[in-house]
């Protein structure tokens, strides 16, 4: 433990599994107090059994795309801790559908969570951070498909491209308040969602990764630790690809 985040109060959305869970755990290992958000009741408690995290990770259940619930969650953090140093916008929904087969229902849901939810969380966090002399750090999890696109992921790519645009605009607007806004763009990452995918269809994409393996959630979490810590105090408006040098 390097204590890179000692004393920082952090909120990580979508922390029930995969990348979000790894971020929450790694932040806690680095000394942070972490509010681990999920929409499904009990999703964080299912893995929060290690004594290492019992005093440093607090489950916080709310829907990020519900304005009332989100405001209530931020009020809870502010009332208890008096501050918020780091927000990681990780929560997201993914449906992969080919052009001509895109479901309007799925499209609406992806934009509600991936885009509108991200904007709502960013707004609420910035209001808290703007009152702190030291500001804060907002980290938006996008995706390499938001940078380069991918077959069968038109809508998902569009939402993640929007997250990148949100990051760049917010960084310019919030910089004067000492609030840094950056994005991590993962490539293929070994999560529960990835394990459930058709592995045969993923072979070509895996073969295009120069480093010869797909990312582990910890790879993404470690990049988030850098952006959350004071090591990145002069880094803002950036999109950092964590994708093993993938040829897309």
Automatic annotation (TrEMBL):
<comment type="similarity">
    <text>Belongs to the short-chain dehydrogenases/reductases (SDR) family.</text>
</comment>
<protein>
    <submittedName>
        <fullName>3-oxoacyl-[acyl-carrier protein] reductase</fullName>
    </submittedName>
</protein>
<dbReference type="GO" id="GO:0016616">
    <property type="term" value="F:oxidoreductase activity, acting on the CH-OH group of donors, NAD or NADP as acceptor"/>
</dbReference>
<dbReference type="InterPro" id="IPR036291">
    <property type="entry name" value="NAD(P)-bd_dom_sf"/>
</dbReference>
<dbReference type="GO" id="GO:0008206">
    <property type="term" value="P:bile acid metabolic process"/>
</dbReference>
<keyword id="KW-0560">Oxidoreductase</keyword>
<dbReference type="Pfam" id="PF13561">
    <property type="entry name" value="adh_short_C2"/>
</dbReference>
<dbReference type="InterPro" id="IPR020904">
    <property type="entry name" value="Sc_DH/Rdtase_CS"/>
</dbReference>
<dbReference type="InterPro" id="IPR002347">
    <property type="entry name" value="SDR_fam"/>
</dbReference>
């Amino acid at each position: 433990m390097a204590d890179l985040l000692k004393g920082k109060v952090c909120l990580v959305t979508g922390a029930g599994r995969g990348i979000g869970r790894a971020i929450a755990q790694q932040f806690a290992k680095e000394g942070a107090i972490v509010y681990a958000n999920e929409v499904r009741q009990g999703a964080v408690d299912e893995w929060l059994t290690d004594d290492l995290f019992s005093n440093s990770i607090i489950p916080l259940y709310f829907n990020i795309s519900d304005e009332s619930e989100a405001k209530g969650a931020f009020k809870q953090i502010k009332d208890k801790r008096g501050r918020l140093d780091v927000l990681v916008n990780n929560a997201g929904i993914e449906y992969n559908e080919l052009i001509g087969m895109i479901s309007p229902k799925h499209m609406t849901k992806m934009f509600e969570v991936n885009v509108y939810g991200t904007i709502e969380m960013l707004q609420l966090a910035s209001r808290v951070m703007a009152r702190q002399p030291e500001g804060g750090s907002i980290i938006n999890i996008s995706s390499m498909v938001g940078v380069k696109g991918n077959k069968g992921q038109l809508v998902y790519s569009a939402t993640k491209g929007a997250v990148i645009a949100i990051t760049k605009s917010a960084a310019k607007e919030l910089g004067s308040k000492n609030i840094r806004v950056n994005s991590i763009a993962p490539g293929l990452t070994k999560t529960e969602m990835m394990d459930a995918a058709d592995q045969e269809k993923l072979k070509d994409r895996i073969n295009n990764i120069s480093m010869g393996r797909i990312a582990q959630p910890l790879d993404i979490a470690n990049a988030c630790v850098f952006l959350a810590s004071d090591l990145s105090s002069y880094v803002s408006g950036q999109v950092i690809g964590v994708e093993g040098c993938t040829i897309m």
